[in-house]
Amino acid sequence: MSANRFGRNFSASRDPGRPAAQSVPKESEPQRPSVPPMPKQSADDIVEFKLTAPNARSVRVAGTFNNWNADRSLMAKEAEGVWRIRIPMTAGRHEYRFIVDGQWMEDPLAKDSAANPYGSRNSVVNVKAAASSRAFAHTW
Prior knowledge:
By secondary structure, the protein is mainly beta. It has no helices and eleven strands. The strands form three sheets. Strands 4, 7, 8, 9 and 10 form a five-stranded antiparallel sheet that branches. Strands 5-6-3-11 form a four-stranded mixed sheet, with no helix packed on it. Strands 1-2 form a two-stranded antiparallel ribbon.
C-alpha cells in the first residue's frame, strides 16, 4: 500500500469487476486575469513646498495632486525649523492645504486660492508642462 497526497492509504490493485477510473486532470493554479500594470504618472514639474514652522511637530501637505491624503506627503524638518517636501506633479491647476500639527491651514503666501466647501480657502498652484522647478517659501 502507498499513501496518497492526503496521507491516506490506498491499494494499487483494482477490482476486476469495476471499470478503470478515468484519469482526472491535475488541479492547477486558477488562472488569474491579466491585469495591465498601472501607468506611471509622468511629472511635468517638481514643486517644492517649504514652510518655516520651528515649533511644529508635524507638517504635511495635501491636495488634488495626492487625492487630499495627508498621509502621503509628510514634510521633512530641516535646520532652523524649515519643513520641506518636493512633489512631482502633472501640468494643471492643483489646490492644496498645509496640515500643521493636525490643523488644516491655507498657505499664507500662495498667489492664488479658491473657496472650498468647508467655508475656508484652498491654496492653488499652477504647474505648466515641462516647466522648471519652482519653490514656495512659507513662513509662519
